[in-house]
């Protein structure tokens, strides 16, 4: 179960009362790469194969589906064992990652190349996609404790993922797109979370030209996105939004 119940005390503006509240679950999950533990990620414990593949993809350990020899999920133990065909020693150090913590990519090496895409989106479609994302956020509606991100195209949301960390949701989509062999050159990431330089890096490695967020980007994310050929659309709310980079993809 991704939701647990706790007895809490609530003030409703007039009085205090005891209620049973739905709380999003948080568990640590180990990723074992070629028989060596490389990371422990705090997450809800769902879509663990996608999360693992997406995380290793963002770290540069996996680039194509052919790099994966085997992946086994142990739900009860909170562990994913993954083997690559190269069988090399892990190129990332053992670490523990909080639900919203940094993954440790080398940002000064980004980007190696700029993405090229003919995709264009209208303001109406921007607002519609954000509405579609928010309407798909079932766990957030129940707990108010998750971020949600979606893989979309100009027609609508293809698949969405929720977790306690925004990094996890993007990694899940990275894993999904690799495992399902999705062409991401005309796709869009729609997210509720802040767009940091690390989120921009993950989206760039997926080959996705547009990031759309209900929140704001950081200064470094904007700088990197301009060099990487990525359009960042932020503050999508209340019928308005801001375009921070490669504005030519947003057209009337």
Describe the structure.
With 252 residues, this protein is of the alpha/beta class. It has helices spanning 48-58, 123-136, 138-143, 166-179, 197-206, 219-228, and strands at 3-11, 16-24, 27-33, 36-43, 68-74, 79-84, 95-97, 147-153, 156-163, 188-191, 210-213, 231-237, 240-245. Strands 9-8-10-11-12-13 form a six-stranded mixed beta sheet. A five-stranded mixed beta sheet has the order 5-6-3-4-7, covered by helices on one side. A two-stranded antiparallel ribbon has the order 1-2. The protein starts with a strand and ends in a 7-residue tail after the last strand. The mean pLDDT is 88.
Question: How do you describe this structure in short?
Answer:
By secondary structure, the chain is α/β, with parallel strands linked by helices. The chain has helices at residues 48-58, 123-136, 138-143, 166-179, 197-206, 219-228, and strands spanning 3-11, 16-24, 27-33, 36-43, 68-74, 79-84, 95-97, 147-153, 156-163, 188-191, 210-213, 231-237, 240-245.
């Amino acid at each position: 179960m991704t939701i647990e119940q706790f007895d809490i005390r609530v003030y409703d503006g007039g009085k205090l009362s005891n209620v049973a509240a739905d709380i999003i679950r948080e568990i640590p999950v180990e990723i074992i790469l070629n028989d060596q533990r490389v990371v422990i990620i705090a997450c809800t414990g769902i879509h663990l194969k996608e999360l693992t593949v997406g995380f290793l993809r963002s770290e540069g350990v996996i680039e194509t589906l052919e790099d994966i020899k085997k992946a086994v999920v142990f739900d009860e133990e909170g562990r994913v064992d993954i083997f690559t065909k190269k069988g090399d020693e892990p190129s990332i150090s053992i670490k523990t990652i909080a639900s919203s913590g940094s993954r440790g990519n080398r940002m000064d090496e980004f980007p190696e190349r700029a993405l090229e895409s003919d995709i264009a989106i209208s303001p109406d479609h921007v607002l519609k996609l954000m509405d579609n994302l928010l309407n798909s956020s079932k766990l957030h509606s129940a707990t108010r404790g998750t971020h949600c991100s979606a893989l979309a195209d100009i027609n609508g949301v293809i698949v969405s993922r929720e977790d306690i960390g925004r990094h996890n949701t993007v990694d899940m989509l990275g894993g999904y797109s690799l495992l399902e062999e999705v062409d991401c050159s005309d796709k869009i990431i729609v997210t509720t979370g802040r767009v940091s330089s690390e989120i921009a890096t993950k989206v760039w490695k997926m080959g996705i030209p547009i990031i759309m967020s209900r929140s704001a980007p950081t200064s470094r994310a904007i700088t990197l996105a301009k060099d990487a050929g990525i359009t960042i659309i932020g503050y999508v709310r209340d019928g308005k939004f801001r375009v921070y980079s490669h504005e030519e993809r947003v057209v009337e």
